[in-house]
Amino acid sequence: MENTAMADSKGYGLLKGKKGIIFGALDERSIAWRIALACKREGAEFALSNAPIALRLGQLDALAEETGAKIFPCDVSDNDDVAKMMADVKSEYGSIDFILHAIGMSPNIRKKVEYGELNYHFFNQTLDISAISLHKVIHYADKAGILNDGASIVALTFIGAQRIFSKYSDMNDAKALLESIARNYGSRLADRGIRVNTISQAPTKTSAGAGITGFDALYTYADKIAPLGNPDADECADYCVTIFSDLTRKVTMQNLFHDGGFATAGISEEMIFALTKIYGEEGED
Predict the structure, then answer these.
(1) CATH of domain 4-279
(2) Which pTM was predicted?
């Protein structure tokens, strides 16, 4: 029997013959980049897309060369741009079987604007880019007739949609909206067997994560609470592949936590020990 390491390096053929679109890869640290590599390993062909400014700042050409993917610039805040991009992908690839939405941006966070003092123009940009863009991507993909029956759509999210992380600011709101859009569209596309899910990934050391104040502390906290610890970007990519695959044909409208158990854990023994060292035992005579 083939050993696990050998199987992992060759893949399992879970996406053999499938085609897709991956939005949001920026550099080799980004989760979307790692998902692209995993999809290639599993036999998929796909288009890569990001905003024109991200293409200038990132390294997407290297990923395209490594995976054989074509790049389609797209500003998801521009309806016409999304529609054109879908038409161009259809012309190049025909119909597709999966879409990854890994798009998120908050000008308020970048400029360190406190939640109570949000710039509403920036807030609207956060919601548009980070959440409403999922609606646009699905809408224009469906309108272009590019989605195969049984296709799978995945958007990356974070537990900030359910719990408040103060430094995550208006992205908490954006992720809540993102998850709602996924459920809404999942119900409407189910008659064609098309699945729409969100994957709530643990804090992950990416370029985007590094831009959030206090990220290192959040990462460490989650890692100590989660029974299995924080999964990394490659582990998220493996999970995402299973949701794109035919093995999960009846999974839809779900927010799937991929966080080592953090979402349902209370407190770990390690954390109790650490806090006891800092604050001492309570209730002693």
Answers:
(1) 3.40.50.720
(2) 0.91
